[in-house]
Amino acid sequence: MDHRRREKSLRRGFGRLAALGAILAAGGLVGLVYTGVATLTSMLLFGWLLLICGIVGLLHAVESRGSNFFWLAVVVAALNIAAGAIVIRHPETAAAGLTMFAALLFLTGGLFRLVGSMVVRGPQFGWTLVQGAFGLLLGVLVLADWPESSRYVLGTFFSLALLFDGLGLIAMGVGGRRVVSMVTEQGQGPRESRENADKSAETIDPGKRAEDGSDQSHN
């Protein structure tokens, strides 16, 4: 009974994991269709996250006001609160700034990968070269269409992250349920064989019983 309960609980847990993955994947697909809404949604979530982290950090700093890092914690918390309030109040402007920052990261990262692959020429030379060229091209494309690109770049990245995370959770849930089923079937096989062996041992041939009885009477 305990084994069956554990099996059911594991299957339910993996089933919930797969269901959560399906929800995330569906959200990612919807976000890829409506990239503008996904961009605003991601910025609002980012702003609220900064705001909540700032409030929690401020409360923690007040509780540990006797420490040497009190003022540093207060400044960091205040910056998080201010940044969160600005992002929530002006999500489009914040999206434009973050898009510019992401494009610069793509440019610098792609340039460093290109130069590094040409200088080092290691075993991953081709793959590093492709990564650098892709990052450089992506940064140029985002900057060429900025600030119009800020309406869909962040939303696309956010939706892709949701989609791939959801697909990963679905794979984990389905794979986990299969593993539980395989382990259960392998556990039931030896158990059934042992039960059949015990039953066959208990069942004695009537002829053998008669021989045993005659031996006992002669004795």
From TrEMBL:
Annotated region (Disordered), positions in chain: 184-219
Keyword Transmembrane on entry: yes
Biased composition (Basic and acidic residues): 191-219
Keyword list, A-Z: Membrane, Transmembrane, Transmembrane helix
One Pfam family this sequence matches: DUF308
Membrane spanning residue stretches: 14-37, 43-62, 69-88, 94-115, 127-146, 152-174
Protein name per the record: DUF308 domain-containing protein
